[in-house]
Specification:
Layout: E1 9-14, H1 19-27, E2 33-38, H2 47-58, E3 61-67, H3 77-83, H4 92-109, E4 113-116, H5 128-146, E5 150-154, H6 160-170, E6 175-179, H7 181-186, H8 192-199, E7 203-208, E8 210-211, E9 225-226, H9 235-244, E10 251-253, H10 260-279
Helix pairs in contact: 1-2, 2-4, 4-5, 6-8, 8-9
Bound molecules: magnesium ion.
Length: 281
Amino acid sequence: MQALREMEIGVMFWGGRDPVATLREVKGLGVRCGQLGIPGDMKLEGAAAAWKAALGAGQFTLVTVFGGFTGESYADIPTVERTVGFIPQATRAEREARTLALSDLAAELGVPSVALHVGFVPEDTGDPDYIAVREMVRRVADHAARHSQTFALETGQEPAHVLLKFLKDLNRPNVRINFDPANMILYGSGDPIEALGALGPYVISVHCKDGDWPPKNVPGALGAERPLGQGSVGMERFIAKLKEISYQGPLIIEREVEDHQERLRDIRMAVGLLERLRQVH
Ligand code: MG
């Protein structure tokens, strides 16, 4: 895979379709790197060979293999708490096994990082769920370390100080952060620019995503995602802060709107916006 520039612009996209066609579409957005999301129901047999061939032929660099799990729902905050990541007890064993398999897949593809949402980690460090999830993350991190990979936790579902405490307690040097500023806002977890300052040394990759704060009158509601530059993150501040903390990793555009054409159009617009913001300051 080719070397990337500092703050190279990339796109978060999902596997599950033909790798060659998928990469053609992503490259058509004007990028040459990205993060590959693996849906929970995607078959892993044969995936490494097919993706490796497509990545090589397309001269496309994957920076992260990103895991999603069957049964996850982001409908509102209580549903996220109940269904996402390593928190739900009933699916812990299968999700841990799946994450180890994703780390193996990433290793076959030569990708240096695996990431996912671990879900809402309780603040109480004596809570049995906290302890169980901490041990899961440690086992996954140790597996990833054997492949010389980082294991990145996506931000947003908890305030920065809670995540920072969790990272210190994990005590695994290859556990890092995939920083998503919009999630901080969508979940009402705090100002993302301040959070980025606090978490800076741990940040290995970022999502460039935008959104608005949750409505005040609907308990448990999430805020709404917006096209990049049109939400409450303040992309100029975000990019300026990344420069201030000497972040050199990729700028990965994430847009989760359902309509495919709208998604592609918004990503194209986001590439243009980030190209402009990279130049200033
Ligand atoms: Mg994200």
